[in-house]
Amino acid sequence: MSKIDTLRPDSRPSLLLRWKHFRMRTAGDIGILGFGLRWGVLLLFAAYFFVPLLWLVLATSKSAPQLLELKPLAFGSFQRIQEAWQRIIEYQDGEVLLWASNSIRYAIWALTLSLAISIPAGYILAVARFPGRRLLLWLTLITMLLPPSALVLPMFMELNLFHLINTQWAVILPSAFFPFGTYLTYIYYASSLPPDLLDAARVDGCSEAELFWHIALPLATPLLGLLAFINFNTNWNNFFGPYVLLNDDTLFNLPVGIQQFVLATSALRPGFNPSPGVMVGYQQAEAALFGLIMVVPVAIVFLIAQRYVIGGAFTGSVKG
Amino acid sequence: MTNQTESLPLLPLANKPRLASFSRWRHLIAYLFVLPYFLVMLAFGLGPGLYALVLSFADFSTGLPKYFAAGFGNYLAVFNEFRFSFTFVNIGKFLVISVPLGIAMVIILAILLQMRPGPLSTALRTLYFISGAVTGPVLVLIAIFMLDPSISPFQALLKGMGFQLTNDVIYSGSLPVIFTLLGFFSGAGMWIAIQYGALEAIPTEVLEAATIDGANAWQKALFIKFPLIRPYVIYQFILIFAGNVQLFVEPQILGGGNNLGVGGNVPTVWSPNQLAYNFAFEMGNFGAASALSLILLATGLGAAYLIIRWTGFFNIEN
User: Which of B284, B241, B243, B277 has the alpha carbon at shortest distance from B83?
Assistant: First the structure.
């Protein structure tokens, strides 16, 4: 017979013991007060981050009077969602679809160009020593700190010199410069690519290009995930650049398009009388649905990419 | 920065002499690898920066640039502009509120989440993260809805604070707080994930040693975890400061040039970056716009430089 049976007569734990077990299970070493505090803070912020998104989804189902009458988090009707969708699609003869396809095209161009340019650069900065390397690293750091919006005005004048303003290249070409990608690639390879591995491959007759293509690149999958995520997110949401560099509304991307749409929605501007350019018919539901069209693709990318953000920059090591 | 090198062995090859004697042939290959990057950096990073410098000394009074004709006239014009101090006080208030508060809350939430890993903690982290998908115009759109006491899900709170109309909530004086809330909503999740990753990278032996020495979870968070993720906190500070100083999209849509804005109480020009835009595209003075852009750029760089010097961050080689 096992020990448990012999202990049985007095094995029923006392209340105190059970309380202690419960405490250890739930609170551990943060204390019962800490347990409450921790969950209180975490849930409060969960509401802060989640309720606005939930509201936005629900708002697409409600008419303007319903928004006022129903509870803020109540559902209206599916019919209203369909109506809102119809009206958005019909907005300026389907311009929304054009803007969406522009957004996709710009983002794909930016992703391809910037990764093709910045990953080889970051790799070689990490594995080779050559004159000018430190300068290039410092310039990368400095330009990384400059948000794109700082450079937009001089960029406008520069692109103007080459007559590229109001063409799709005015948006695509500047996005090829991705110093953050170069810097992160540099850190990644510098911290996780064993130099002996490269030396061994060189002895075996691998050329420098083959080293990069066959050895370094396949080792960088987590890094590629992180960079693709950051890059896609930045370019999908790029507002300031297209806003300044494009006038032709057939070239707009979704962020600039939605700004136009919001300004055209009288329901969102109670402080103003409708001026000639303002369309009275659009309500909050249309604006909310338009917002969702822009947010949902990114949200999906966010869900996929989260693990790269947590792991990519730190533990993407090849040592294991 | 010894902590950083312990947890993140950066540049293990830095001191290997073998690589220092890279052959001339290999130098050439290395240059081929960096050449495209250097070219786009020149064209879309350094180039515009230097061009802005040139333009800031150009005279635009006739509509066409006369290079080096203005001297420091454009800089003087910026300083004497009646909205200059207004916009800089605004951005100053926004930075003072948003930067420390944002960083503190991100670290607190990251530590609280990572304290007890599990499915619930993961779910919450994802929840915080997902709102990062909302930026720019959509972010402003959500803000307009959330701050309208008649339809907001937070209407009880808003009405409790005595607000009845959107215009009671959104006005020039409340914008620093509103933009802080917006920035946190959109940006915090990403930083929480990054800091969470940094916390995960702390070696378990260090934390076990602290447990054996009798530290409880709160003490470990404050005295061990926080100091170890300090480099990433500084990194966050630099990027958030440089980004926030450039605030443009949110006030531009809320105030909307030409009275097309949404908030009736929001001035057309609220932030310095908007003033630069106004100089260029409303007044046609690209010289003054460039001068102001450079002043902003210098502010961001100056803050970054101070922090880097002060903390020794980025000193990852040598």
Answer: B277
Q: According to the model, what pLDDT value does residue B12 have?
A: 43
- Over residues B170-199, the mean pLDDT reads 91
Contact (CB<8Å) A34/B201 = no
- Number of domains observed in the structure of chain A: 2
Whether the per-residue pLDDT at B4 is higher than 70: the answer is no
B128 touches B109 (CB < 8 A):
yes
Q: What does each C-alpha distance from A50 to A123, A236, A296, B8, B292 come to in angstroms?
A: 39, 22, 14, 34, 38
Residues A118-135: tens digit of each pLDDT: 999 999 998 888 889 999
Out of A27, A62, A83, pick the residue that ends a domain.
A83
Q: Which residues contact B67 (CB under 8 A, 6 or more apart)?
A: B54, B57, B58
Tens digit of pLDDT for each residue in A7-34? 455 566 788 888 777 766 666 667 778 8
Structural domain spans, chain B: 2-16+83-311
In angstroms, the CA A235 to CA A238 distance is 5
A75 touches chain B (CB under 8 A): no
CATH 2.102.10.10 fits B2-16+83-311, yes or no: no
Q: Is residue A36 part of a domain?
A: yes
CB contacts under 8 A, A 126-145 vs B, are 126-131, 133-134, 136, 139-143, 145
What is the domain range of residue A35? 13-83
Residues 6+ apart with CB under 8 A from A298: A232, A233, A236, A237, B133
Domain match, A65 and A151 both: no
- A266-317 pLDDT, tens digit per residue, is 666 554 444 444 444 677 888 889 889 889 988 888 888 877 777 655 543 3
In this structure, are A252 and A181 located in the same domain?
Answer: yes
CATH code of residue A217: 1.10.3720.10
Q: Is A295 on the interface with B (CB under 8 A)?
A: yes
Q: Nearest-CA residue of chain A relative to B217?
A: A30
CB count, 10 Å around CB of A3?
7
Q: Both A300 and A153 in a single domain?
A: yes
The fraction of chain A above a pLDDT of 70, given in percent, is 84
Task: State whether A31 and A109 are in the same domain.
Answer: no
Is B21 in a helix, a strand, or coil? coil
